Known about the structure:
Largest sheet: 2 strands, antiparallel
Strand order of the largest sheet: 1-4
Bound molecules: FE3-S4 cluster
Strand content: 5-15%
Amino acid sequence: xxxxxxxxxxxxxxxxxxxxxxxxxxxxxxxxxxxxxxxxxxxxxxxxxxxxxxxxxxxxxxxxxxxxxxxxxxxxxxxxxxxxxxxxxxxxxxxxxxxxxxxxxx
Length: 106
Ligand code: F3S
């Protein structure tokens, strides 16, 4: 599966959603996750994300490894998103932030 990691927090550009052929994204207040049971590992979303938030599970950096479980858990909690929408209002500012995982709103 592919995994959405920390840099998506506060941004939600949703370019990933626009290209996903299987509708595997679920949306929370300030973050998106990928349903590992639906993702077909086509990888088209990876290059679309302006903040490089999406990785193949096997390429996730060690310090982002907990996002594998976060994607699995929040997929069950959040609704499907099937069409791109406007990024979050402060997306540009959030794009440059580091260590923002504490800001993830469930
Ligand atoms: Fe998030 Fe990037 Fe998609 S910021 S919503 S993973 S395009």
